[in-house]
Amino acid sequence: MSWTAEAGAVFAKELRTEWRTRVALSAVGLFALASLTLIALSFRGAPLTSFRSDADRALQLLTREAVAGSLLWVLIFFTAATGLGRTFVQEAERGTALALRLSARATTVWTGKYAANTLLLLVLTLIAAPILLAILEVRPANAGLLVCVLLIGAVGLAAVMTFTAALVAQASAKSGLLAALSFPLLVPLFLAGVNGTKAALGFGNEAGRWTPALADLQVLGSYAVIAVTASLLLFDFVWND
Amino acid sequence: MATVAKYLLGMWIAATVVLAYRWLPPAEGFAVPEAAPIVALHLPLALVAIIAAVVAAAQGVRYLTGRNLASDARSKNAAALAALFCLLTTVTGSAFARVQWGGYWNWDPKQTCIAILLAVYAAYFVLRAGVDDPEKRAAVSGVYIVFAGILTPMLGYVVPKYLAKFSLHPTNTQFDSRYWTVILFATLGFTGLYVWMQNLANRFDVAGLVLQQRLAEAEEAPAPRLVTMATAASGADTEATAWTTR
What we know:
The complex is a heterodimer of chains A (about 240) and B (about 250). Chain A is mainly alpha-helical. Chain A has helices at about 5-20, 25-45, 55-60, 65-85, 85-95, 95-105, 105-135, 145-170, 175-200, 215-240.
């Protein structure tokens, strides 16, 4: 089997097993729903623009756009940490890791699972982001830029998450470990992602131009390339152990 | 020889501290010039932390290619020492930041980077604690430290870009040449201290590995025979039992 066909087969297998149980999808969906509800409850209760006193006016420096940008990435990070860890853990739990190890090369296993995870994360982001923005009543100044930032960000995020998930699957205490392991590595991605999202939502960029966020897109892009390359190089050492 | 080297190292570091606080003049251009000599200790500590971090990643690569548990032990010890020296850098830096910038923590780019580095080492040791099988643990933690070694250098470019446009850390301080002498002294002293601690921890771990191997070999060998020796002199009811291993 050629490399691409093998990776495609792993990808299809991932989607099929996920569709049969829908564990990751429902866990992630419920998590996103819970956080969106919490955000809605707190922000609908006290709209940010209704602050009157001087002390509260200082808070207005953190305008809706900035809050929306950071909340969106908090939501994406924890959604990813809840859902994307499943891929390797389920192989370990069902005892199917050995069969997969025999029938596919390490790089194709990683690529297939990475593609499935990216798809899952993208679908969730594209559903959750408009709901979050609607709750916060923020209208993006440049929707195309927002989609680009989220797309490239999700590609890099899914790479680091898929790779650390393979490490976590070897550990005995798995819950919570994925977030702890991946967060310090993801800080560069979050800084660029939050900055780019704020620009796309119109924070200091009311006209919705592309130029303020070009550097962010570069950082996100190079981070994604480095993360994918490093994962492909190192995955063999965790997988075929 | 080793004992002499240890005493020399102790004297060297003591001399460095004395030099830093008795010989160095107050540095111009700082808020409290008299407090500046701590820089001569802070800078070398940061340098040694970087050396230890590079050793940790390099020994991680060495484990993954050679599969020798001793390399994993070296990588682990280097990571622990890197965390220790990061912590010492943070403490000396914070103390100076208090007098220089008015607060222990100012979210300066370098402070942010070191906080994230400490988080990486914390995650590394949490991961190690989570895996029971020694070889699996070595592979997983080796891969993590190499992966972190590839991704974290980006922080140096990304953090100054987003969190503070310019660092509070000085880049153009005109230090008296005596400062550079003490910084060189301290760098040599702390590097020696690091090498000594690393060597000590490595030897301890390697001894543990050898012991485990010996125990495993002894278990594989035929079971020890229980030899009972009835000692005629003290009567039939007193039996001395002895374990012999072949």
